[in-house]
Amino acid sequence: MGVRLEPSDEYMHELGPEPNFNESMYINCFDPVQQVGGWFRMGNRANEGSAEMTVCLYLPPEAGAPRRSVGFIYKRPPITNNDALDAGGLTWTMVRPFEELRIDYVGKVVLLDEPEQMANPKEAFTNNPFAECEVHITFTGQGKPSMFGGEPDTPHETPGEEFAKGHYEQLVAAHGTIRVGTREWEIDGHGLRDHSWGPRFWQSPWYYRWLTANVNENFGFMASRVAKREGPGTRGGFVWENGVIHLCDDVQISTETRGAESYHDKINGVLRSSRSGKEWTFSGEVMDLIPLRNRRQDPDGNWLMTRISEGITRWTVESGEFQGQTGYGLSEYLDQIIDDQPVGLAE
To answer: Is pTM, for the whole model, over 0.90?
Structure first.
């Protein structure tokens, strides 16, 4: 199966006929010195008449405060076409394909000293204060050789279980500013971005684990484990090491959870590349976690519940040239919720 990725794919795609057609961009970043960062997502669902807009900021403690906090906002602003990713105060600008992308956000975020309150969004938005927020960040990448993925030349998903027709990712550097209320930070860090398009239901995977990490401009990784209701699912990812991208065809992940809700807390994993004949071992500790949810009714009128737990994570490289070095990134755990429990607890 071949994969196509052209500079034109960095821009918007033709709106498909599927009712659940989604075109989205996601990006994260973290400044290791100031211990501040976040992630941003815009998903156009023009055939449904709206977009999914999310801003999530992981913030260090204020002076005298005992703990870190999270600034968060989610909106479904109305849209009528798939011409741009620009809604709800969040704007994406492609400057140079594969090399430079800018995001700008002006609006509000809710401030959460206890971000797990977002398990009940209505209460979280009602019982916590809001602050004015402004974000302007430029992300730069190392060209097409650093890109992972694209659009397969043959369909790769079962009808009804589609999650993306095309999808690619890239590790990036991040420079800009984040302001929340009266606090402002100059950002100098790293992150990862992705772009996907095609029909999507958040209920399509049974569960997945998506891990992103940057140590510096010379080392980072993405690990992906997607489980299906039936069949083995997929395991893979990539490692960026000294200017070379290593495609990985296996990842093994073990997770320690905490609390009655079984949120992920500590992670151990190994990525393997049969093509390179190499493997990389890593461990992670979640610093801040916010649980998000998506609900959809099935044809019988039953509500399907999906939980997406987003954890800013401190990673440690456990093997190889960069052994002992630390980095930062996101650990995103998606699970269908059955009988009040996430289905992927075994992994």
So the answer is: yes
